[in-house]
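To whoever picks this up:

The nightly regression suite flagged DNA repair protein RecO as changed. Nothing in the input moved, so I suspect the structure step. Input below, exactly as stored in the fixture:
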Amino acid sequence: MEGWQRAFVLHSRPYSETSLLLDLFSESHGRVRVLAKGARARRSQLKGTLQPFTPLLVRWTGRGDVKTLTKAEAVSLALPLSGITLYCGLYVNELVSRVLEQEFPFSELFFDYLNCLQTLAADNSSPEPALRRFELALLGHLGYGVDFLHCAGSGEPVADAMTYSYREEKGFIASLVAGQRSFTGRQLRALWERDFPDADTLRAAKRFTRIALKPYLGGKPLKSTELFRQFVPKKRPDATSQ
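Regenerated output under the current build:
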């Protein structure tokens, strides 16, 4: 199996009449762009294989920004994402595509990604905890260091009932003023543990990851979020937004 990589397709688009241009997330090389020649041809053995959420073994050649895919095999059937979990999976794929530099190894994040998809596919409850855990893992692998357990002003451990205001490049500072960037010590502890036992900690986690991911995403909206808003009714009780 020398030279084979475990990978997932993040995004694909047609290239010429019979080929595909793919963004892959691979275990050892991170995000890689490859050209799958002839993948759209009528008799191609790759037809139907190079789909998002399908665990793959792949090989490629080349030294430029775009490699040439030489082999691809599905390890198993695609993870069964549908409805809301499908939109969540598309959101995770878009995050990885937008945030990770090309050909920078993120082996541990690859398994965080796999675990997120498996949780989305297997869990019938809200997908939000899995999304928040993946976002926090992604921020951690990007080197986004923040101390959730200590006040950046005093150095004292956070108190559950105290309110702390988040300041970029500094951390959380005790404050009596509540706002969009304010979090209780209890919420900060949940963020550190990546465990969200109730709606309050989940909402706080979503608020924080939105703040922290914004510099990486810039002002361009996420296509997956726009799709979610278009096709999922706003007030369904079982619906969630990424």
